[in-house]
Amino acid sequence: DKRGTSPCHIACPAGVNPQGYVALIAQGKFREALEVIRRAVPFAGSLGRVCTHPCELDCERRQFDEPVAIRSLKRFVADYELRVGREKAVPVERTKEDKVAIIGSGPAGLACAYDLIRDGYAVTVFEALPQTGGLLRYGIPEYRLPKEIVDNDISYIQELGVEIKTNTPVKDLGEIFNQGYKAIFLGIGCQESMKLLVYPLLGQRRANSGQ
User: Fold this and answer.
1) Are residues 67 and 106 in the same domain?
2) Considering the domain boundaries, does residue 176 fall inside one?
3) Are strands 181-186 and 163-165 parallel, antiparallel or unpaired?
4) CA gap 198, 17 in Å, rounded
5) Are 88 and 111 in contact (CB under 8 A)?
6) One Pfam family from the UniProt entry (predicted)?
7) Partners of 185 in the beta sheet?
8) In a designed cystine with 40, which of 16, 122, 128, 138 is the match (CB 3.0 to 4.6 A)?
9) Domain residue limits at 74
């Protein structure tokens, strides 16, 4: 186990420990490397494809030649698991009495559910759409992020004990509290795209001339 906190670890928004799993991959311990990733996030396969990898910008190897291909190595171990077959995750024992509801099954909602289920809470995710994944499924094209990768990441979360209800829009939070949930996390996403401030040529001329 790598000790200390490396610059690449600090740079990771999700708190993944790259130096830990890269060292395990170098030793041929692919399953153990995947477990290191899953200590922080459940989306090893998805992040191995679409993460912007800020960790590589802070990789100390850059001082000598090129940064370690951290994201690609994450993808490698996730794909290795798919290729050889993933063992079903062991359900987490419930140790807390309170139930928590998650509204939305996108990355934020699923990550929240993942952390809570491992802390011993009973967790239910309510999703209005027919399938789970949010942005991962509906916002990223297939050639960048295959649906089977998304499905595998989400299946792992469900196997831990997270209940997911699709086709279940929530219109009244009071109804959720009435069902016995003590807390609600809203992970409904950003459904509208940002508009680019691109002016037609005439408009740009006016803007540049101060009109």
Assistant:
1) no
2) yes
3) unpaired
4) 40
5) no
6) Fer4_20
7) 102
8) 16
9) 7-84
Angle between helices 147-159 and 107-118 (to 10 degrees): 30
Q: Is the domain of 75 the same as that of 108?
A: no
Which helix (H) or strand (E) is 125 found in, with range? Answer: strand 122-126
Cβ-based neighbours of 117, under 8 Å, separated by 6 or more: 92, 123, 157, 160, 161, 162
Residue 16 near residue 41, CB atoms below 8 Å: yes
The answer to the question of residue 206 being in a domain is no
Residues 129-171: pLDDT tens digits?
Answer: 999 999 999 989 999 999 999 999 999 999 999 999 999 999 9
Residue 199, pLDDT score: 57
- 166 CB-near residues (< 8 Å, 6+ apart): 105, 127, 129, 130, 131, 132
Structure tokens at 158: 């469900």
Supply the DSSP string of the chain, one letter for each residue.
Answer: ---S--HHHHH-TT---HHHHHHHHHTT-HHHHHHHHHTT-S-HHHHHHH---HHHHT-GGGGTS----HHHHHHHHHHHHHHH-PPPPPPPPP--S-EEEEE--SHHHHHHHHHHHHTT-EEEEE-SSSSS-THHHHTS-TTTS-HHHHHHHHHHHHHTT-EEE-S-----HHHHHHTTEEEEEE-----SPPPP----HHHHHHHHTT-
